[in-house]
Amino acid sequence: MAIFVQALISGILIGGVYALIGIGLTIIFGVMRIINFAHGDILMIGMYATYYLFTLLHIDPFLSVVITIPLMFLFGAMLQKVFINRALDALPQNQILLTIGLGLIMSNSVMLAFTSDYKILTTRYSSSSVTILGISVSSPLAISFAITAAITAALYWFFLKTDTGQAIRATAQDREAARLMGINVRKMSTIAFGLGAALAGTAGALIAPTYYIFPQVGSIFTLKSFVITVLGGMGSVVGATLGGVLIGVAESIGGVYFGSGWKDVVVFTLFLLVLLFKPAGLLGKSRT
Amino acid sequence: MKRFVVLLGAISLFVPSFAHGAKVKIGFVNSITGPEAPIGENLTNGVTLAVEDLKKKGIEVDLVKEDDTGKPETSMSAFEKLATRDNVTGIVGPYSSKCAAALAKLAEKYKVPLLIPVASKDDITRQNLKWTFRLSATTNDYAMVLLDMATKLGKPKTMAIINENTDFGTSGAKSAKEYAAKKGLSVVAEEAYAPGSPDYRSTLAGIKAKNPDLVFMVSYVADAILLMRQSRELNLVPRAFLGAGAGFATVQFAKEKDISNDVFSSAQWTPDVSWPGAKEFNERYKARFGKEPTYHATTAYESMRIMAETAAKAGGSANRTRDLLKRGKWNGIMGEVKFADYDGYTNQNKHPMLVQQIQNGVHETVYPPQYAPKKPVYPFPGWGK
Amino acid sequence: MTPDSNAVYRARRISLASLTLAIGVLFLLPLFVESTYVLHLMILIFINTITGSSWNILGGYTGQYSVGHAAYFGAGAYTTMILLQYRHIAPWYGIWAGVVAALVTALIIGSICFRLRGPYFVLASIAVAEIFRVSVLNLKNITNGAEGILITEIPPLSSGGILITDWDSKVPFYFTGLVFALLVILVSWRVGRSKLGYYFQAIREDQDAAHSLGINPTIYKNIALSISAIFTSLAGSLYAVYVGFIDPGSVLSVELSVQIVMIGIIGGVGTILGPVVGAALLVPLSEGLRSNAIANLLIRAGIVDPESRAGAFLKENLGHAHVLIYGILVVIVILFMPEGLVGFVRRAVARRASR
Predict the structure, then answer these.
(1) What residues in C contact B76, CB-CB < 8 Å?
(2) Do C291 and B165 lie within an 8 Å CB cutoff?
(3) Do B221 and A118 count as a contact with CB atoms less than 8 A apart?
(4) Which of C114, C130, C131, C259 to mutate to probe the A interface, most A CBs <10 Å?
């Protein structure tokens, strides 16, 4: 029983980080209908930025989020304006390949610039944990969970209460109608991509103290983020949050009961089941 | 007297002396890019130093480097190119076991001697191949030396195995399991994980519940650090943590003092081992590259040295090089090297494995006693605050 | 005859003649070329042509972009290798078992994934391929898991007492690859011109409209997938026996699936020549970058001075940068030549002809 609870708690905590990645992807897909295969690589760039802010300027990773968010937003917006924008009317298949190509460019440029050496970001609290009722809770993960919750809340408020946020939602719901209503859909796309990138980069920053950093780290997270977004429902922020936590827990508990090697199969099977029986996801609106 | 001098002069013309500007062309296949690139870099460094030393001895090495990107088919095209277009006398490399497995058969086909520095998969030298040589010990040896030591230091009864589900991890785990049976240890848990997971807590919690005396791990650096961090979090306290090479033997791991203390790892080479030139090599490498050499660097260094010297002696003939490799004996920073046939192995060097333990953030060689300046700490004292 | 149709007649004669010439040259190549390195490159090109062309039948013609084709490649590879190494069944029988395995895999995958459309189909295809890969990785008793399968020898092929080949050189692999590649191109061409091909394209253009016209999308999508899977598995089996070693990472990975898609896209999706061009371009490019040949070429052509900083950087790093350049190429093709190289060239030629 203790193992189950431990797995549950660990799963929820790591799920927080997954959620952040998923939210970023869901915003991009919701607004632009593009499957961003470079999402994980954007996360990787966020990780490297955090690493260098820490080692060169001694800024704590959790605090450096304040710098990383706007930086990654600009990066994402740039990517959108220069590359993705040109392919908005292309076949979706080509769009996917475009993002794959961009991802390859990102990971390999980083490899050339910084070598493939694994970089470990060690803070005072990287290995510390708190034991509550016999369950060990990782301190850095708990903090990232809290920050993720705060960001999700802020995003939710942004989409519900601000004009820009509502404009983005409108664009996601029906691009043509939004355009007819006078919304600058091109600008919304840029903002959406920037936002998505900022979230991915932030997820990278939050996970940096407890994980390790190398140029190809993105690919592991890209696949997972797809599963999360579909599970939660493409375009739903709360859905992605829920999806992230669910996947974290599924992975963790799946690992205990099926063996660590089968963890990924558990996640992907869940993914397929959702795609087949509830393709709109848990909280998505029915729309094929 | 004059006739004697003339005779001496005449004879010296016929003595093939490689000490005077011999030139040899050697190929070097390595993972320069690709997932193994960080470790591949160590091999490149080792070879660079070797080439410099050889030059000082008067052997000019025309080194042809090829990148195998970690893929067997790329490794094969690299080998082809070296053997047929560059016409090298011998080839050193590759790094990974799966590439080495593919190349071993090519060496036989093209009749170019291949000296494998550090790929440890057992099968490679168990195929009766005459043209493939291996300097390093095999995966079996990694496990054996750790279990030998553990059973000498105490009387552990149970063991848990955690390994990454790659070739290296799986063969390491297999070796550990087989040898454990021979030593009377019962394996109470066996977890193979996919590398790159951020979270091993559930795996480790399961292992903690089984209360093993020994925890045997096969991982690369990054996962090793995560595993140990999370072991500490969960307060997993076996009598010893046994790390089979790779991740646990690196300096990066050792530096994480919070989590690395008293962890054992098996290694092919350590900086304070009592082999000729080892300590000097360590200093020189540190000064040059800013970090300590790993056994990947030292095996690559020694392999290149042996290959080039032999090729020079053989006057650039691949055939003769193979002969001389088979019959030769060397003693350098990797200790004594002799490629022998034994126990089903062909052209395998019987390299003695070492065990290190991290004490105060530094790797200390602790076993076997004849090469080890320090004593091991056993059992594991627990996680301090 | 009008002058126009005369020109068309002549053009067709020329292209048929050049095609025959090209095939003839390919068959005679091993007689003139001694270099095993060139043969090796050609074999890789053939394998990539086969995978690209088979993917094209499902992706280009039928519009179903599967990014999980490695599953069929791996099914063929593993079946053939397991039968060869553990049961000593010769590969010329083994590959057909591989085809059966791939077909079964395809039908399972199809029944799951074809209910989905567009990007969801893409994601599902990746997910099933990954499930397949992890399963192969974990079922160690059958597949030897991460340690992979290494073949110790290939039995000699003889017919009626005469030894055809003992597989010692690359030449038999070259011809096998050539024959398979020609076969898949032929099938591609015939299918493209047949009623089947039109049904495929109808599904691609508008699945619902096609359905309303009486074309059952599920049946035809599965047919397309089956044809695709058969040939991809042949390529996988050939690769496995040729390289002599496989493991889940080399024949079942997402990277491989992406590579297969890239060949079709860069060459020109939906065309017969596209995957051929894609393979013929990308394989030598990849090799050339990796082996520093291109860097050396630039230096020798005097474009870059090896002493300058740019030159030194290039010499050191261009070899490492091959994947980066690959990525840049893909981006350029997608943004500026979405119909692939073949499409781009065709349009350029048409533009010139109409002047």
Answers:
(1) 40, 243
(2) no
(3) yes
(4) C131
Asked if A222 is an interface residue toward chain B (Cβ–Cβ < 8 A), one would say no
CATH class given for the domain over B17-137+275-349: alpha beta
Mean pLDDT of B60-84: 87
Residue A286 covered by a domain: no
The pLDDT assigned to A192 comes to: 93
Please indicate, yes or no, if residue C308 is contained in any of the structural domains.
no
What does the pLDDT read at residue A286? 46
* Residues of chain A contacting residue C331, judged by C-beta atoms under 8 Å apart: 83, 98, 101-102, 105
Rounded to the nearest 5°, which phi and psi values hold at A239? -60, -45
Distance separating alpha carbons of residues B28 and B67, to the nearest angstrom: 9
pLDDT at C308: 63
Chains that touch B (3 or more CB pairs under 8 A): A, C
At residue C314, the pLDDT reads: 60
- Which among C290, C292, C315, C326 is the top mutation candidate for probing chain B, defined by the most B β-carbons within 10 Å of its own β-carbon? C290
Q: How close, in Å, is residue B117 to chain A by CA atoms?
A: 21
By C-alpha distance, which of B33, B101, B107, B44 is closest to B72? B101
Contact criterion met (CB < 8 Å) for C148 and B85: no
Cβ atoms of residues B96 and B31 within 8 Å? yes
Predicted local confidence at residue C32, as pLDDT: 85
Q: Which residues of chain C have pLDDT under 50?
A: none
Distance from CA of C255 to the nearest CA of A (A): 10
CA distance A129 to chain C (A): 32
Q: Is residue C68 part of a domain?
A: yes
In this complex, which of A86, A104, A272 lies closest to C335 when CB atoms are compared?
Answer: A86
Whether the CB-CB separation of C109 and C71 falls below 8 Å is answered with yes
- How high does pLDDT run on average in chain B? 87
pLDDT, mean of residues A205-232? 86
Specify the CATH number for the domain of residue A75: 1.10.3470
Residue A282 included in any domain: no
**Which has more confidence, A288 or A52?**
A52
Question: Å from B88 to nearest chain C CA?
Answer: 15
Q: What is the reported pLDDT for C17?
A: 86
Dist. CA C41–CA C35, nearest whole Å = 10
Question: What is the number of domains present in chain C?
Answer: 1
Q: Between B370 and C201, whose confidence is greater?
A: C201
The residue of B161, B166, B202, B228 whose CB has the most chain A CBs within 10 angstroms, and thus the best one to mutate to test that interface, is B202
Residue A151 has pLDDT above 60, yes or no: yes
Q: What share of chain B is helix, strand, coil (3-state, %, to 5)?
A: 45, 20, 35
Question: Would residue A173 count as lying in a domain?
Answer: yes
Residue C118 belongs to some domain of the structure: yes
Does some domain include residue C324? Answer: no
pTM of the predicted model, to two decimals?
A: 0.84
Q: Is the pLDDT confidence value at A156 over 60?
A: yes
Q: Does A8 touch chain B (CB under 8 A)?
A: no
pLDDT score for C223: 94
Q: In angstroms, what separates the C-alpha of C29 from chain A's closest C-alpha?
A: 35
Query: What pLDDT does residue B168 have?
Result: 81
Give the Cα separation of C266 and C285 in Å (integer): 13
pLDDT, position C317: 62
Tell me the residue range of the domain where C43 lies.
35-270
Closest chain C residue to B163, measured at CA: C146
Q: What is the pLDDT of residue B11?
A: 55
For B202, which of A10, A111, A131 is closest by C-beta distance?
A: A10
Any idea which architecture B140-267+354-367 has in CATH?
A: 3-Layer(aba) Sandwich (3.40)
pLDDT tens digits along B308-345: 999 999 988 999 999 999 999 999 999 899 999 998 89
Which residues form the domain of A241? 2-277
Q: What is the ipTM of this complex?
A: 0.84
